[in-house]
Amino acid sequence: AQSVTQPDIHITVSEGASLELRCNYSYGATPYLFWYVQSPGQGLQLLLKYFSGDTLVQGIKGFEAEFKRSQSSFNLRKPSVHWSDAAEYFCAVGRRFSGGYNKLIFGAGTRLAVHP
Amino acid sequence: DGGITQSPKYLFRKEGQNVTLSCEQNLNHDAMYWYRQDPGQGLRLIYYSQIVNDFQKGDIAEGYSVSREKKESFPLTVTSAQKNPTAFYLCASRDLETQYFGPGTRLLVL
After folding, report:
1. What residues of chain A lie within 8 A of the CB of B47, using their CB?
2. Could you report the per-residue pLDDT of A19-43, keeping only the tens digit for each?
3. Chain A CB contacts of B50 below 8 Å
4. Among the residues of chain A, which ranges form H helices?
5. First-to-last CA distance in chain A?
6. Parallel/antiparallel/unpaired status of strands B105-109 and B10-13
7. CB B81: neighbour CB atoms within 10 A?
8. With an 8 Å Cβ cutoff, is B61 touching chain A?
9. Measured between beta carbons, which residues in chain A are less than 8 angstroms from residue B102?
10. pLDDT tens for residues B48-86?
């Protein structure tokens, strides 16, 4: 069965520091990969996605992620964190089934706190 | 402005009561989804609909029901059979491989 693991439940960084959030997935083929961000009490906002091609993808708000097939990973990075980046981040894997059904499998999330 | 709206923002359910959560989208997407979010568990799929008048159970459909009479609308009913309904409910619609989410409804039990 497919699964998504985000090893870090909570991460705290200082404002201006670099950030890397880890995501590992279990899936036989090349999946569709996503990172979403959620502020408290809000819905999920798409940060970036990877389907194929260049393994380094750029997203909104200065985030990027790198797909590493050999490590089954899709880690999210940002060179300099802003206080407004404090939120919960979800990695997700998408799969297409027969009949056009498309499913997302989510990791449990990583909560990011930013110190001033 | 295109997007997904969910209402109400907060909903209170009494014992034995059915309640309905609204989800509307004007993105012209065929596929729509309902998820439940509990702390520390990520999102779990309740129901999904590929097209009007069709819907399928997700991973945790027990105690929930849906309808899809219009492309724009995918309401979720939390029935009295759902014994632990307190959660944050998120609706999404899909364009090709990407799902886009609404702002959510928080359901609380009185």
Report:
1. none
2. 999 999 998 777 899 999 999 999 9
3. 99-101
4. none
5. 41
6. parallel
7. 11
8. no
9. 43
10. 999 999 999 999 999 999 999 999 999 999 999 998 999
Residue of B nearest to A3 (CA): B42
A9/B95 Cα distance (integer angstroms):
30
User: CB of A36 within 8 A of CB of A45?
Assistant: yes
Q: Which residue has 């997302």 as its token pair?
A: A104
Contacts of B74 (CB under 8 A, 6+ apart): B23, B25, B32, B34, B49, B55, B66, B67, B68, B91
How many C-beta atoms lie closer than 10 Å to residue B5's C-beta? 13
Query: Closest residue of B to A4, CA-based?
Result: B42
Question: Given an 8 Å threshold on Cβ–Cβ distance, is A108 in contact with B41?
Answer: yes
